[in-house]
């Protein structure tokens, strides 16, 4: 049996504070850097670091990889969902401009996508493909994945067998939040287990 561990960590607070970012490439704020550094304990060990290509993940991943003398790989597939016309806006601004649409999105993302956004179904598929690929590539290793709230939701959705909408609505993932997933490759196939969240 081959056992693989993935530690998932969401990026810290980006410059500009809380807003829909999606594919917008803002770096971490000073507080965001502190949140990320505080979330990693002394003595933790990984074999490899994977990161979203976006600055708010990538810069910290490279810093940590250098400190720990670890290989780091940019995994394009783990980029955040694109929020379309909502990108760059705060929740308050979206509520003012789009009324109930935002509440409906968080309640049922599959039927109420933001205008011009990546659908949650397409996002779920993209993350599923990336998860399958990297699970195979990293089999038997302990991996840190530095990514986004939406990405973690979809990974946990795949692990727990949730619909895209349920995965999007089903987890609270604050800045620098950590989760751990265990994958056991057995004669019966891959067994996925959420070890801890938050």
Automatic annotation (TrEMBL):
Protein species of origin: Alcanivorax sediminis
UniProt: substrate binding residues: 56
One GO molecular-function entry: phosphoglycerate mutase activity
Keywords, ordered alphabetically: Gluconeogenesis, Glycolysis, Isomerase
Family, as annotated: Belongs to the phosphoglycerate mutase family. BPG-dependent PGAM subfamily.
CDD domains to which the protein is assigned, alphabetical: HP_PGM_like (cd07067)
Protein name as it appears in the record: phosphoglycerate mutase (2,3-diphosphoglycerate-dependent)
Position of the signal peptide: none
Active site: 11 (tele-phosphohistidine intermediate), 80 (proton donor/acceptor)
GO biological process terms, semicolon-separated: gluconeogenesis; glycolytic process
Pfam family, one: His_Phos_1
InterPro entries linked: His_Pase_superF_clade-1 (IPR013078), His_PPase_superfam (IPR029033), Phosphogly_mut1 (IPR005952)
Annotated EC: 5.4.2.11
PANTHER family with a match to the protein in the record: PHOSPHOGLYCERATE MUTASE (PTHR11931)
UniProt key word Isomerase: yes
Entry keyword Glycosyltransferase: no
């Amino acid at each position: 049996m081959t056992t693989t561990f993935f530690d998932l960590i969401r990026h810290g607070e980006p410059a500009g504070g809380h807003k829909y970012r999606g594919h917008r490439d803002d770096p971490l704020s000073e507080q965001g850097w502190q949140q990320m550094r505080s979330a990693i304990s002394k003595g933790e060990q990984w074999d490899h670091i994977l990161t979203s290509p976006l600055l708010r993940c990538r810069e910290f991943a490279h810093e940590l990889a250098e400190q720990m003398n670890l290989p780091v790989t940019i995994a394009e597939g783990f980029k955040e969902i694109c929020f379309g016309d909502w990108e760059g806006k705060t929740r308050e601004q979206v509520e003012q401009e789009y009324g109930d649409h935002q509440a409906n999105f968080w309640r049922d993302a599959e039927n109420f996508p933001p205008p011009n956004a990546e659908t949650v179904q397409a996002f779920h598929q993209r993350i599923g493909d990336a998860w399958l690929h990297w699970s195979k590539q990293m089999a038997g290793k302990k991996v840190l994945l530095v990514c986004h709230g939406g990405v973690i939701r979809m990974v946990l959705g795949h692990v727990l067998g949730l619909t895209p909408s349920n995965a999007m609505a089903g987890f609270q993932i604050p800045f620098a939040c950590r989760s751990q997933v265990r994958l056991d490759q057995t004669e019966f196939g891959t067994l996925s287990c959420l070890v801890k969240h938050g």
